[in-house]
Amino acid sequence: MVEESILKELIKGARLARSKAYAPYSGYKVGAAVLSSDGEIYTGCNIENASYGLSNCAERTAIFKMVSEGKCEIKAMAIIGSGDTPAFPCGACRQVISEFATGDTEIIVLYSEDKYQVYTLKDLLPHTFKLD
Ligand code: THU
Is the CB–ligand 1 distance for residue 85 below 6 Å? Predict the structure, then answer.
């Protein structure tokens, strides 16, 4: 289980990232924070587009920021949506998470501003596709 202080930082980072969400079409703002193996936190928000299919989820924004800084290992991540909807990562994001995480990587899913549940990646994506 990720340390309490780090968990708090991840939640704070996800909340701050959500405030930057560009979601004029759905109105549903999402924020994510990823802890990399060296202890850095990378955050991201959802970024929508008038051509809807080009929209990017918050999780992938955060992960791509991490990877583009040369870090390829997710230690933990937190995701917050809007309202009281649990912010479960979509299927595409689960697959992208699995590229940079292990089955035991913890994913903190917020249910409201301060309620959360901790899952592992293998809870959310059993039998993941990997080329190895
Ligand atoms: N969204 C995310 O950012 N992450 C997810 O895992 C699911 C959905 C975003 C995409 C879109 O901007 C909005 O939420 C509504 O689907």
Answer: no
> Catalytic amino acids?
59
- The pLDDT of residue 132 is above 80: no
- Residue among 46, 94, 121 whose CB has most ligand 1 atoms within 8 A, to mutate: 46
Residue 43 bridge partners (DSSP): 33
Specify the pTM: 0.97
Give the DSSP letter string of 85-128.
Answer: S--PPPHHHHHHHHHT--TT-EEEEESSSS-EEEEEHHHHSSS-
- Euclidean distance between CA atoms 35 and 22, whole angstroms: 23
Alpha-carbon span 24 to 27, nearest angstrom? 5
